Amino acid sequence: MPHNTFRPDLMGEAQINVTGPVTCGDWASVTLLYTAGHFGIDDSGSIKIAFRSATDQTRFQLTDPTAAGYVRIAASNGAGLKAWFESNRNIRPWHHTLYVQCNRFLAKGDTLTVRFGDKSGGGPGFRAQTFVEHSFEFRVHVDAFATYDYVALPQDRQPVMTLVAGPPAVVRAILPTLRAVNDSFSLGVKVEDRWGNPTGRDPAIFRLRPSRPVAGLPETIDMAGSGGVVRLDGLRVDDPGLLRVAVLDDAGQEVARSNALVCGAGGAFGHYWSDMHGQSEETVGTNSARDYFAFARDQGLVDICGHQGNDFQITDSFWRDLNDLTRDFDEPGRFLAVPGYEWSGNTSVGGDHNVWYRDEGRPIYRAQRSLVMDDSDPADDCLDAHALFDRLQSEDALVVAHVGGRYADVRYAHDARLEPSVEVHSAWGTFEWIVSDALSEGYRIGIVAGSDGHKGRPGASYPGASKFGSYGGLTCHLLPELTRDALFTAFRQRRHYATTGCRAFVDVQLTDFGGGMRVLPDGHEPIDQALMGDIVTANGRSARLALSVVGHCGIERIELRDGVDVVHVHKPMEHDRRAGRRVRIQCEGAEYKGRGRLVTWDVTATVTGAKILDMRPINFWNPDRLPKVGPTSVTWSNVTTGGVHAVDLWMSDGDAAHLRIESQMGGFEMDLSQMPGDEHVVECGGLGKRITLQRLPDGPLPDTADLEQAIVLDQIKESRLYAKIVFEDGHMAWTSPIYIGRS
């Protein structure tokens, strides 16, 4: 990466007054002392102190000493100082930057004292970053000669502090979602702090209560020395059925309940979960790439992981390091680490695409080299998505269109052999529009999700307190075994489904189509049953779609879709919804497809004719920004980036309640007794921006569903059949379509 390297050893030194670890999300005050080096700093020269773009610590400010994040600065020689903050005006990943300019020169030994989160004026300090970082850096650069050409201090002179997890707040239990009877599987038990960091503080002993006998499952587990995560391997059940495991504390209270494991009588595949999309500190993320893969395996508890650093930040040496890491971490049968990168072209030339290779040692084809200008061979550049697909023709590679900063334009370029799927969800938001774009173009695509996390937590990517308003997604792969060969084969057959991060069991099958042929990459084979991702030519005029869902919680609705059209909606307990006292006020959508998609919702809901008895927030990931509720009103400020958030209210009398919903995006009034149907929708423009008022039963919704739907096959066009499942807690899932046409 090009930068000024003139005598950093003579540019001074910096240190902070923090010697021990800081707890994630705690309030802090940090003093940084910069001491000028041999050259001093010329009149109108400056220093800049930069922080990584991923950090979600309090934004610093220079104007209000009584408010959070106030910064006070002084020079030891009394020099006048000019200071200002900039975001996205420094070379990535150092986006958040404080500039301090000297109006009189500093000599060697003179100092600048910068108090971040100064409390002397009554301010509370600043809230530290909410996610663990082993070496959180206050990166200091010096413009000693007033040329605006900054030199970074040597790495061993850069101030760093350690951010560690806080006390326990949540316990989670994680099972796979499908295994055959007597197949070995694992149970993960994880203790997290309030921000989603696995924590080993205050370790407990838990008792495990399975819903059916499990060979190898201990009665208790001791979390001491585990770092907050215990993985129990080699478990088995000896008869078909559902398994859930409850986790009990020392008082016998249930503190966690696992998702469901479907134990089948035997089949062609099991379920394996992946987060194949995220970054580490070598590009724009947090902690090292080695830490990244270790977290995915040991704390994120996924089966498959990939690293998708931006191509323009991956030097040739780091590319070799990544390939060494995936080779080291790859352990067929237990954990797959897949080599890859993110081709990061601007949207005008195709947009972001994830690339994974079956084997190490393959080339990195870059869209651009803005931060690796002195590295690598320009002959390997692919300056648009067409060129990328051309260069990958001879590679054993997978490509997925992705929406991040630069969103992928699937209409610009697509190669069905290389690009089997599109990414519907990540920590950046929910993007059903990319599925619609692909299907509208006639592409046969599957649907995947990943985190695109920048906080070093693949497989468990919480948004923290930053602009990332969503929990990171996961993909469930239907594989006969956990190997790269099986993964790549199934991926190309679109044998996967996507979720917004939950681990729900979903199964889709198509039958009764009179027999037909499954289209394979190298031919056809006769079949009488189709699975998700299949391309089928049918002999009959109709078919039957069977869907089975076992949720981690209640199922709010299931939509069966044919391409961009919804053909059937199933709402469990639909007849009980209008009789209940619970209403859900839901906000969703985005401004548009690009970087400025985030919508901030400031909402007030006022109730007359009834009292609010209880409230439950849905997809409020920042625990410091929960709704404020009173007897007759609730207010909140939250964001959406294509997904949803909601508030459930339980009324003293549902039919007598009158609701007034106000927000800067839109609003309405409604007598619940006069509401037509069980929901009312107000469109607010943008990209699917809307407010929905919905009535729900008082108690939890059923967490299982089995549907069958008759499908009349079109005589001319192909049907593209898939399901979207919406869960009671706001999570969602999408199955890859089955493509079926008449023979």
Strand runs, count: 57
Instruction: Summarize the main sheet.
Output: 13 strands, mixed
Any idea of the CATH class of the largest domain?
Answer: Alpha Beta
Beta fraction: 35-45%
Question: Which class best fits the helix and strand makeup?
Answer: mainly beta
At the third CATH level, what is the topology name of the largest domain? TIM Barrel
Q: Give the overall silhouette.
A: globular
| Termini separation | 56 Å
* CATH architect. name of the largest domain: Alpha-Beta Barrel
Q: What is the fourth-level CATH superfamily of the largest domain?
A: Metal-dependent hydrolases
Whole-number tally of structural domains: 5
Return Rg in Å.
Answer: 27 Å
Question: How would you state the average pLDDT, rounded?
Answer: 95
Give a summary of the structure in a few sentences.
The protein has 743 residues and is mostly beta strands. The chain has five domains: 8-164, Immunoglobulin-like; 170-265, Immunoglobulins (Immunoglobulin-like, Sandwich), CATH 2.60.40; 271-501, TIM Barrel (Alpha-Beta Barrel); 503-572 and 701-743, Sandwich (Immunoglobulin-like); 576-696, Sandwich (Immunoglobulin-like). Strands 25, 26, 27, 34, 35, 37, 38, 40, 42, 43, 55, 56 and 57 form a 13-stranded mixed β-sheet that branches.
Give an account of the 3D structure.
The longest helix has 14 residues, at 316-329. The protein folds into five domains: 8-164, Sandwich (Immunoglobulin-like); 170-265, Immunoglobulin-like, CATH 2.60.40.10; 271-501, Metal-dependent hydrolases (TIM Barrel), CATH 3.20.20.140; 503-572 and 701-743, Immunoglobulin-like (Sandwich); 576-696, Immunoglobulin-like (Sandwich). The chain is mainly beta and 743 residues long. β28 (340-344) and β29 form a beta hairpin. It has five helices and 57 strands.
